[in-house]
Amino acid sequence: MCGRYASTKDPALLAAEFDAVDGTGDEAPGADYNIAPTKHVMAVVERQPEDEELERSVRVMRWGLVPHWAKDLSGAAKMINARAESVLTKPAYKQSAIKRRCIIPAAGWYEWQPAEGRKQPYFMTLGDDTSLAMAGLWSVWWKDDVPTVTCAVLTTESLGALAEVHNRMPLLLPQDRWSAWLDPTSLDPSELLTPDLSIVEALELRPVSTDVNSVKNNNASLIERVELP
User: Fold this and answer.
1) How confident is the model at residue 114 (pLDDT cuts 50, 70, 90)?
2) CB-based contact 154:194 (threshold 8 Å)
3) 160, 171, 209, 222: most buried by Cβ count inside 10 Å?
4) 121: phi > 0 → left, psi -120 to 50 → alpha, else beta; which?
5) Quick check: 138 pLDDT over 80?
6) Residues in CB range of 86: below 8 A, 6 or more apart
7) Is the pLDDT of residue 156 over 70?
């Protein structure tokens, strides 16, 4: 966890939902029902340019964090998640956790549960039009003066019924934690790394088609409920 998720809103809707401005320009990806590692995704950040006011914006990033000191982008697919329990001590994530935190909005995420010789995919969602706010980190990697902005999703131990599907889940932020998590002047996020049980209890664990197993499939039917045998 988290290896696949869905993001279905355009940047203007996300900006309105997260009280931000749309900073994606013409780079915003379209609705994606099967986001896989290294794809471009949208994230919410807060930055304060020199002599300007703090601004919250929706930006485009590449999923799979690449530290600024990495030689190349080849390790990105293995860096899509960061464990909340160790994010403040791991060299690859520590500075981003302190200074460069973001929110990665999602309609929901997928997980696979072993079941009688096969794995049954589930889509974890709030079941309405409300986005999940997955806690994330971001970093900038440079080559030939060209920046690549990358990100990772924080994960924690699963709570409640989620533990029956998978032992890890994304760190989901309730709205009253958004500002504190995004605040670039706050250098100690340790109190925000505990999962919020109320969000977990509100989730729908929706069985979905095994069509999601292939990243080639990408349409709205992937998040629709199916009846289990």
Assistant:
1) confident
2) no
3) 171
4) beta
5) yes
6) 93
7) yes
Report the largest interatomic distance among the alpha carbons of the chain, rounded to a whole angstrom. Answer: 61
- The pLDDT of residue 67 is above 70: yes
Tokens 């806690």 belong to 135
Return the structure tokens found at 93: 């994530």
Residue for token digits 């989901």?
Answer: 172
Please give the Cα distance from 227 to 229 (Å, whole number).
Answer: 7
Helix (H, G, I), strand (E, B) or coil at 136: strand
Active site residues: 2, 111
The 8 Å CB, 24+ separation contacts for 115-119 are 118/210
CA distance between the termini of the chain? 25
Q: Identify the CA nearest to 205 among candidates 91, 93, 152, 127.
A: 127
What tens digit of pLDDT does each residue of 176-223 get?
Answer: 999 999 999 999 999 999 999 999 999 999 999 999 999 999 999 999
Copy the structure tokens of residue 22.
Answer: 């749309």
Edge-first strand listing for the sheet containing 204-207 = 32-35, 5-7, 108-115, 118-125, 204-207
Residue 1 has a pLDDT of 61
* Whole-angstrom distance, CA of residue 144 vs CA of residue 28: 23
